[in-house]
Amino acid sequence: MDLTVLYWILIATMLVGVAGAVLPGIPGPSLILIAILIWCVATNFAIALWPLILIFIALILSAGIEWFAAYWGARQVGASSWAQFGAILGMVLGFFGLLPALPLGGPLLGILFGAVAGAFVGEFFYRGKLEFKPRVEQSLKVSVAVAVGSIVGNLLEVILAIAAIALFVWNTWPVAFGSFGIS
After folding, report:
1. Can you tell me whether residue 71 is helix, strand or coil?
2. Torsion of CA 19, 24, 25, 30, to 10 degrees
3. In angstroms, rounded to a whole number, what is the distance separating the alpha carbons of residues 98 and 46?
4. Is residue 66 within 8 Å of residue 74, measured between CB atoms?
5. What is the pTM of this model?
6. 53 to each of 33, 39, 63, 104, 149, how far by Cα in Å?
7. CA 20 to 30 Å from 135, out of 25, 109, 120, 127?
8. Could you read off the pLDDT of 52-107 as tens digits, one per residue?
9. What is the per-residue pLDDT across 96-142, written as a single tens digit (0 to 9) for each?
């Protein structure tokens, strides 16, 4: 296979990986990593070591940033471990619960709404000794923090994935197309 054809196939695969950073069911950073590894093997590692290390760091960070952002957001408003467990359980149940109903956007919405609802329920049960109104207020505060953290985490994951791809293209373009453009 021609090296330029392989290059464009791998770039397309990486772009699917960027979509996977937001859409459940599509591997995100791992798909980008696999494409980069295929390029490295095909070109006998024709990429400098430092850019490759920076790409791996960006992909590793992007893999865990969404979970960390949701966790950090919840902790900022004093969420209990019950709320965090509820959010994780809600994500899983939301993913599978809306998958059959809305196959395209259902899992994504299920993860977001499931995490928010799970955090609310977990915090509500944990705060059982409070009066009803303060219980609901704290549970809502935790739910909003989980939602905002998840959205910010997704955004950061996409930014890191795009940065990894841009760094890859910047450092491999001359190998794929020659020093001065497509040949």
Report:
1. helix
2. 60
3. 44
4. no
5. 0.76
6. 12, 15, 15, 35, 27
7. 109
8. 899 989 888 887 787 788 778 888 888 888 998 898 888 888 877 765 555 555 66
9. 776 555 555 566 677 778 888 999 999 999 999 999 999 999 999 99
Burial of 69 (0-12, 13-18, 19+ CB in 10 A): buried
Q: Which two tokens stand for residue 148?
A: 């905002």
Contact 118, 88 (CB under 8 A): yes
- Which amino acid would we find at residue 46? A
Residues 6+ away with beta carbon under 8 Å from 2 = none
Q: Are 135 and 50 in contact (CB under 8 A)?
A: no
Report how far Cα 81 is from the mean position of its chain's Cα atoms: 22
Domain boundaries along the sequence of the chain: 3-177
| Continuous H helices in the chain | 3-20, 29-42, 49-76, 81-98, 106-126, 132-177
Per-residue pLDDT for 24 more than 50? Answer: yes
